[in-house]
Design brief:
By secondary structure, this protein is mainly alpha-helical. Helices cover 75% and strands 0% of the residues. The protein contains six helices and no strands. Helix 1 crosses helix 5 and helix 4 runs antiparallel to helix 5. It is globular, with a radius of gyration of 16 Å.
Length: 178
């Protein structure tokens, strides 16, 4: 179970690194987009929009490194739960605005794609809470660069790209159906 948990957590962390870096590249647009997709007052939303990509990057790195595992995982689950709520709300209101979840480089929308991706992220991290222990594997648990380490990185990266492709594919299908 530890290796599977490591793969899914590392993949989720890689996804959040990509997402946060793409938002940081377009920080001003990212800040403005938070107001469009939430019910938060404009000035507060814009401030959150400026801060969130950096918070997301720190959280992502901590997920990958598995530092202070329980607190980081709980924080990640809370953030991802908020993503689930926001995407569910978009579906209920039939509001499929661009969410800027991956900055300008990957166009994404609120809705079913975001909901599915968020649920998969949640399920990727949940086992860490259920099976919390002090003997957690990290990507640095391997003494040397070997085949197992290479497989771990490749499979984690594949999980990351799978999450992105699921999101973008469902977003495209949603646009075609509309």
């Amino acid at each position: 179970m530890a290796i599977i948990s490591l793969i899914f957590t590392t993949g989720a962390g890689f996804l959040l690194v990509i997402s946060s870096l793409f938002k940081i590249i377009s920080l001003r647009e990212s800040a403005k987009s938070v107001h469009k997709i939430t019910f938060i007052p404009e000035k507060t939303a814009i401030l959150l929009g400026y801060l969130f990509p950096f918070f997301e990057l720190v959280l992502a790195v901590l997920l990958v490194l598995r530092v202070n595992d329980f607190l980081v995982n709980i924080t990640a689950l809370i953030i991802i739960s908020i993503f689930i709520i926001i995407n569910s709300n978009a579906i209920l209101k039939h509001s499929y605005a661009e969410c800027f979840c991956f900055g300008k480089l990957l166009k994404s929308r609120m809705g079913m794609g975001g909901l599915i991706q968020s649920i998969l992220l949640f399920l990727s991290i949940l086992p860490n809470i259920i099976h919390n222990n002090s003997n957690v594997l990290t990507i640095f648990s391997f003494n040397e660069f070997n085949f197992e380490y290479l497989v771990l990185i490749v499979v984690s990266t594949l999980w990351t790209f799978t999450l992105i492709l699921i999101r973008l594919s469902v977003d495209k299908l949603s646009i075609l159906r509309a």
